[in-house]
Write a structure and sequence with these properties.
about 160 residues; mainly alpha
Length: about 160
């Protein structure tokens, strides 16, 4: 029996986020006026969209597809010069950094929703805010930083 590690928990958390966001994004695309979610578009004030299609696509890609694509990258740790160009933590593998980006994207997503709602906070807003913090906290654990720290090149 394999021991459950912090890395396994981290990958599972990203997986649940990705699958949930793909489902939520698809529902917003299929039901652009919010009827399937019981969330009428009229509750959103000053939203720059006439319906939920664009937010659904954004949710599907940024918080659905990207976390799911990060899972194999976090497992295999492939090199990518392109991904490394946007890696602000040069000593860490880009997939680890991008998981932090996903968490901040989730926080931003929730905050933007709250700006447009202006009237109420649903328990899911709080849940996903803490979920994003959980992703960041787990990523910052010493064992995770050790796992994803780039190997320093030997100087000759």
């Amino acid at each position: 029996m394999q021991k459950i590690t912090t890395r396994h928990v981290f990958l599972t958390i990203l997986g649940f986020l990705g699958l949930g966001a793909i489902g939520g994004g698809l529902v917003l695309i299929i039901s652009p006026m919010g009827e399937m979610l019981g969330l009428p578009i009229t509750e959103f004030k000053n939203m720059p969209f006439q319906n939920f299609v664009i937010p659904g696509i954004i949710l599907f890609i940024l918080l659905g597809t990207i976390p799911l694509l990060l899972i194999p990258a976090l497992i295999k740790k492939p090199d990518s010069k392109l991904a490394d160009m946007f890696n602000v933590f040069g000593d860490m593998h880009w997939s680890w950094t991008y998981s932090i980006y996903v968490a901040f994207t989730l926080i931003s997503w929730i905050q933007i929703q709250l700006i447009f709602l202006q009237s109420s906070v649903h328990w899911l807003h709080t849940f996903y805010s803490f979920y994003a913090l959980l992703i960041i906290l787990i990523a910052l654990l010493p064992q995770m930083r050790t796992t994803y720290r780039k190997k320093s090149e030997k100087k000759h």
